[in-house]
Specification:
By secondary structure, the chain is mainly α. It is built from two helices and no strands. The protein is rod-shaped and about 75 Å long.
């Protein structure tokens, strides 16, 4: 099983958050910076959330496409001839 990876924009957001946390930890006594294990876990969670969103978006796009085709089929005149 391959682990999902987050795109570069998400990596940047996560790294900015980590940097902000480290700056806050230097300023305030009640803040603890993330260690490397925590940072790795945060990236894993971000990748998983991104993968879920991507999959969800793909499902929505497919459903919309299927419904559009259904409407197009329903709008076509029937080629079957009615029996007298």
């Amino acid at each position: 099983m391959t682990l999902p990876i987050e795109p570069n924009d998400v990596v940047r957001l996560i790294e900015e958050y980590i940097e902000d946390e480290h700056v806050s930890a230097e300023k305030w006594e009640n803040r603890t910076p993330l260690d490397e294990a925590g940072i790795s876990h945060l990236h894993s969670v971000a990748a998983e959330v991104y993968a879920l969103g991507f999959h969800g978006g793909t499902c929505v796009a497919n459903e919309r496409n299927n419904r559009r085709r259904d409407r197009e089929r329903a709008a076509r005149p029937s080629t079957a001839q009615e029996k007298p």
